[in-house]
Write a structure and sequence with these properties.
- With 199 residues, the protein is mainly α.
- It has 2 domains: 83 residues, RNA polymerase sigma factor, region 2, helix turn helix motif (Rna Polymerase Sigma Factor, Chain: A), CATH 1.10.1740.10; 75 residues, Arc Repressor Mutant, subunit A, CATH 1.10.10.10.
- Helices cover 79% and strands 0% of the residues.
- It contains 8 helices and no strands.
- α1 crosses α2 and α6 crosses α8.
Amino acid sequence: MKLTETNEYSITREEESAMMRDVAARDDTAFAALCRQYRALIYVTVYRVINNPQDAEDITQEVLLSIWKKADTWDVTKGKLATWIAAIARNRAIDTIRSKQRRAALHEKMQKEERMHDAASLEDSAREQVLHREARLIARSALVELNPAQREAIELAYLEGLTQTEVAQRIGVPVGTAKARIRRGVQKLRETIPRRINA
């Protein structure tokens, strides 16, 4: 697939400003126009980073949703709308690659630990093996009890290995909100897990 850029993104600053003002006001018609205007730019930008058509399409959707959520943060005085959108697309594509790399490394680490655990389990008593399984089940069930926002933040931070800033960007909230969700989620787990163990 050969991808090329076009000049179809050349609209005036006034048109850009009006479009983003309407999108920030949650105008569906304006957002549909933005999607038509910039979807190809987003896709091309993402594809050049990750070189995978399906992933590029998925990330394009994520980028458009991100623009919908934070349209009010675009500053017309700091550059063209196309440049701002391309930067978001590029950063999201790079984040996706890094996230996949972290997940692969985490998966490999977990597999290694599981193999080590399996080897050690051969020497464990039947009671110890039961306790290990119960501990895993308790941790998983405690995680499920978190509210969706906390659980999402915890999973991104501890299972995908994202930084707090990356977590905030991924879920489209301020960094302080992401930190608070992670902190409250960890606190809830610290309260829930001992209670379940002692039940």
